[in-house]
Amino acid sequence: MTTATRARPDLRRDASLSAVLAGFVAVAISYAGPLLVVLEAARAGGLSPQLTASWVWAISVGSGLVCLVTSWWTKQPVMVAWSIPGAALLITSLGDYRFSDAIGAYVVCGVVSVLLGATGLVGRLLQAVPRPITAAVLAGVLFPFALKVAAAVAGQPVVAGGLVLGYLVGRRWQPRYAVFLALATGGVLAVVTGQAQAMAVRLTLTTPTWTTPTWSWDAILGIALPLLIVTAVGQNAPGLIVMHNSGYDADDRLLLGASGVASVLAAPFGSHALNMAAVTAAIATSEESHPDHDRRYVAGMACGFFYVLGGFAADTIVSLFSAIPAGMLTALAGVALLSPLQASIYDTMHEGDHHRSVTEAALITFAVTASGVQALGIVSAFWGLLAGVVAYAVLRPRPR
């Protein structure tokens, strides 16, 4: 396993077109997929276009700066993005609180993330929970999005159905660009059928909006706590696993601490949580980024650069997606999350080095998380994780 080095990188020697393209593809996939979850959360929470654009600016610029700095510092392809399961839980909870209270909860979540990450506690806790159980949390959060695709196709068979067909064609011949092809197919069909509102697209430079945080115990318990949990187990854990499996000795204290600090600073502008990325990290850390393991950090820096550019074009991005029919967005979000859903379900059902009872506990985790239960105002991801850990403690045989 390659250890991190702090020797100053030589970008003139290490830069390559393949690594830059890998960074660009990672950003484009984030905007074509995970960003849709954020936009749906903003719509469900009743946010104005200005606040929605500021949210996109904050998560983009925050992610980009962390990618740039940490990739350069560690000489590793560090990929940071916004919390997908965190945004997913906000779809059902954001509208229940004042927006300033939600911002306060984001700040609390970021501060606790810094403390837990910088102390190494997150890394130790994640190592203590069997991987199938943590994977089941992410699978349970993403599964409902896949279920909505069928209803979207039934409601808009031409646009949503064509989008799904485009995705399948892409997966057959160009898997990396399947989401792009799905988006393009759905967009063309929406224009042809008159369901798209092209005049709604705005070409402007984004100015972020500051919201002064306020503090509410209800929001802290209802948003900050579950956001912290789903981000740690659903994003940071898989992100660190991708880094390690790719041969990088990722410093979890540095990387989680840096993303936590960025989360705190970006929160007043609307950012809910920043974390290690997993899906896009697989692109940057692959041989397609660069054959030389030690030159793939350029992909992380390129990703950061394109994220920052995307942040200042947030108004245009938000208006572009607002012009798209709702059924198309639902279908696109569902197919875009199929790949991470498939990977998380695979990890859920493979026991690895653990006793076979871990897969049964992971299945319980998945079922509780996917149920959407919100006992005591806390989202199902927390209860799913708790149920899985308890089930595994009961089912696992004791050594004799």
From TrEMBL:
It holds the Pfam family BenE. The keyword Transmembrane helix applies. The chain crosses the membrane at residues 20-39, 51-73, 79-97, 104-125, 145-170, 177-199, 219-242, 254-284, 296-313, 320-341, 361-394. The keyword Ribonucleoprotein does not apply. It comes from the Bacteria. Keywords: Membrane, Transmembrane, Transmembrane helix. InterPro entries: Benzoate_Transporter. NCBIfam families: benE (TIGR00843). PANTHER family: INNER MEMBRANE PROTEIN YDCO, MFS FAMILY TRANSPORTER, PREDICTED SUBSTRATE BENZOATE. This is Benzoate/H(+) symporter BenE family transporter. It comes from Arsenicicoccus bolidensis.
